[in-house]
Amino acid sequence: MSGLVLKLAPGERVLINGAVIENGERRSRIAIMTPNAHILRLRDAIHPEQVNTPVRRVCYIAQLVLSGDVGAEDARHQLLRGIEQLSQALTDHDSRGLLTAATGAVLAGEHYQALKALRALLPREARLLAAAG
Fold first, then answer.
1. Which residues are within 8 A (CB) of 117 and not within 5 positions of it... i.e. 6 or more apart?
2. This prediction's pTM
3. Residue 21's beta-bridge partner residues?
């Protein structure tokens, strides 16, 4: 079987091509066979009022591509520029690896993988901002 496989917890919601789908009472597994479908797990979603840090801003751009609100080509430059700016501040080995993975994913058009790598930076950013504040 090819395509994206979503494993959903009971009651979990996912946005697929603009439609919010809620899972029932049991865990389930859904295979998305349509290439380039716009899919976003709502548990991973960052709301506009939460876009208040540099990493969250770049994550939000990737999320807009996944939700279908922004085209991949339209967001590509913003994502790559944002990742470059983050790489100037997050210079440790682990952060560099995640930023490299995010860059590769954006260049390959794999925005979910880019979002996944960028979200892994959120705890690091929170620690840095807490130490600076």
1. 98, 99, 101, 102, 105
2. 0.87
3. 14
